[in-house]
């Protein structure tokens, strides 16, 4: 008998973008496994291949189209193969139009992920493309199945969507309006994770500082952090992303006082120029940001402050860019993601006339990176000789004979040691600080 016939059908997921998508892919896995599919890491063995996409920058979209072309070749050999396309790109009408021409079988959006099994079945039965993308968010869906990837650290969504409409950003259009999950639902999930052996959770939202708005209960983000940190078995709580305009004193005090909450705050500055910040619709000034970060440093000893920065926003003059460099040297970010502004159709900034030439954007990006990388390296080198408490995550991606671990401040530390250390929190002495990571040695306990 053909052994293939006895095997359950397999699915393969390709995930792009932020942690929200990583989390959504875990739910997609859960939905597929509930339908009797099993995961495969070989696309050629799959009967369903799913794309979970990101549209935050043009380059993100290009990667997806490239991969789609590659996967399309498999369909020529296997006409029964179902290609399903979801995530942020799927929400955009111009993308949907292009997908219609590309032989995709199922298109689903960020708001109707839960319909995936039904849509796949429909495509299989009708042999016709099924395009079903909800324009608007529905109720927050609780209790969808999910298959989580790592065994030590888990992402937990606390809210969906975004109301900020920064003028460059597509996310409010692809993820809809901001809505928070009830704290009881979040804590139930965290308790279950602790029961399964997870030791660290990262609370996720586009703007966690505005958590709780619109809920019946009176819980703000600081309260939620506190409650999450008190779940038995959870030793570390992280969160991302913070918006400078909504960061409260209470939150800073909570992080300072609670030993389970890690002292790392990702609080994107985007630009150091007040004029550009205003055009970006960010709702704060450089002065406010400086005050905020100095308060963090004062109240939370050793805190790591990380950021996102954009160069070449429409109308950015040399002096605006100089303001960004100035802020980078003043704040001294422990790390920063740096981007060239990318036009997103449908956003306000796409209509701005003073678009910056690509060459200028490239020059500014490399100048910014030079400064930021130097600072990151200096900070990491200053840690040499110090003892850091790390959570050991697993084998290092670059060198399988080593282990990768993470400090409370979210720095990667490469160590040597046995696999028994995985999942444990241990002290290590830092032996070398590099730009993006540290090396350390396990201390004799
Ligand atoms: N909600 C988070 C993250 C949003 S997307 C936040 O507000 O911080 C992650 C980052 O991508 C943003 O912080 C921003 O720096 C960058 N980004 C978003 N839209 C962009 C665009 N059109 N061009 C370049 N970078 C962009
Ligand atoms: Fe985009 Fe701004 Fe919302 Fe972040 S806060 S997701 S940058 S609109
Ligand atoms: Fe990308 Fe959507 Fe996240 S646009 S960054 S996957 S919210």
Percent strand: 15-25%
Mean pLDDT across the residues is 94
Q: Class of the largest domain, according to the CATH hierarchy?
A: Alpha Beta
**CATH homolog superfamily of the largest domain:** tm_1862 like domain
Helix content: 25-40%
- Strand numbers in spatial order across the main sheet: 2-1-3-4-5-6
- CATH-derived architecture of the largest domain: Alpha-Beta Horseshoe
Small molecules bound in the structure, each named once: S-adenosyl-L-homocysteine, iron/sulfur cluster, FE3-S4 cluster
CATH T-level topology of the largest domain = pyruvate-formate lyase- activating enzyme
What distance lies between the first and last C-alpha atoms, to the nearest angstrom?
Answer: 57 Å
For this entry, give a set of tags.
single chain; alpha/beta; pyruvate-formate lyase- activating enzyme; OB fold (Dihydrolipoamide Acetyltransferase, E2P); 3 domains; six-stranded parallel beta sheet; five-stranded mixed β-barrel; 13 helices; binds S-adenosyl-L-homocysteine; binds FE3-S4 cluster
Descriptive overview:
Helix 8 packs parallel to helix 9 (249-257) and helix 12 (318-331) runs parallel beside helix 13 (358-382). The longest helix has 25 residues, at 358-382. Helix 4 links the parallel strand 4 (82-87) and strand 5. The strands form five sheets. A six-stranded parallel sheet has the order 2-1-3-4-5-6, sandwiched between helices. With 445 residues, the chain is of the alpha/beta class. The protein has helices at residues 3-6, 19-34, 58-77, 93-100, 116-126, 171-175, 183-195, 221-229, 249-257, 274-279, 286-299, 318-331, 358-382, and strands at residues 10-15, 38-39, 48-53, 82-87, 106-108, 130-132, 153-157, 159-160, 179-180, 200-204, 236-240, 264-266, 304-311, 335-340, 387-395, 403-407, 412-415, 425-433, 438-442. It has three domains: 10-132, Rossmann fold, CATH 3.40.50; 153-381, pyruvate-formate lyase- activating enzyme; 387-442, OB fold (Dihydrolipoamide Acetyltransferase, E2P). The structure holds S-adenosyl-L-homocysteine (SAH), iron/sulfur cluster and FE3-S4 cluster. FE3-S4 cluster is lined by residues 17-18, 20-21, 54-56, 88, 170-171, 174-175.
